[in-house]
# Entry
Amino acid sequence: MSEDCNHNCQTCGESCNERTKESLLVKPHAMSHIKRVIGVVSGKGGVGKSMITSLLAVQARRKGLKTAILDADITGPSIPRAFGLRTRAEGTSEGFYPVRTQTGIDVMSLNLLTDNETDPVVWRGPIIANSVKQFWSDVIWGEVDCMFIDMPPGTGDVPLTVFQSIPVDGIVIVTSPQELVGMIVEKAVNMAALMHIPVLGLVENMSYATCPDCDKKIHVFGESHVDAIAKKHGITTIAQLPIDTRLAAACDNGTIEQFEGNWLDDMLKTLLK
# Structure
C-alpha cells in the first residue's frame, strides 16, 4: 500500500493488498445511480439516530436534492413512522421500489415489507446483514444525489456489512451528553478508522433544554463534552440539538417533513461537499 493511498480502489490502478476490500463491495441495482452515501451511526441506542437521519434527509430534500433513506436498522426500524408511511413497498421481476414520502424522499425499510409495523424480526445476524445488502442491490433507487443509511446502534454485524458492502463516503456519529458516551463514541470512531471510512460530523442530541420563560439553556443530562470529544478525534463539524417536545411529537405523528429547525444546516453543508 502506497503512503499516498486514499483507500479508494475505484480510482487507483495500483495492485496491493488493500484491493481485497474492493471485492466485498456489492453493486447497486442496475437501475440505480447513487452519487453520495452517508451513514448515520451511534455507539448505543436511544440517542436519536433515526431522528437525525430523518432531519438530514428532510434538509437535503429542501435544497432540491434527490434524497433517499436506506433503513438498515432491521430489528428496530423507525424511519417509516417518522414520515408517516403506511404503504407497503412494491416490486416486480426487476426488483423492489422504495416508498416515496410526501416531499419526495425515497425510503426502504423492513417495516414497509411486513404486514404490520409491530411484527417482530426474529432473525439471526447473517440473515439481517444479508437483508441490508439486498436493500442496496435489489431496490430500484433510480437517480439519487444523496442517500442516508440509518444504521443500528453498536459495532456489530450490520455496520460491518454496510462498511464492507456499500461505498460509504463518510459517517455522522450521533451521541448524547452523558459522561459514558465519550467511550462509546470512541468505539464508533475506531471502527470507522479500521474500515477507512471518514467521520464527517458529530451530533450531540438532547444537548440542552430551553426554559420557556427566560430562554436559559438547561443541561438536563449534565454539561456537554462534545467539543472535547470532537477535538480528541479530529472531528471539525459539530451540531447540538436541544430537547424539543415538538420535534419528538413530529416523529411520533409522522410529520417530520413539516418540522422547521436549522441545527443541522452547517452539518449538511459539510456532508454534501
About this structure: The CA atoms of residues 3 and 166 lie 24 Å apart.
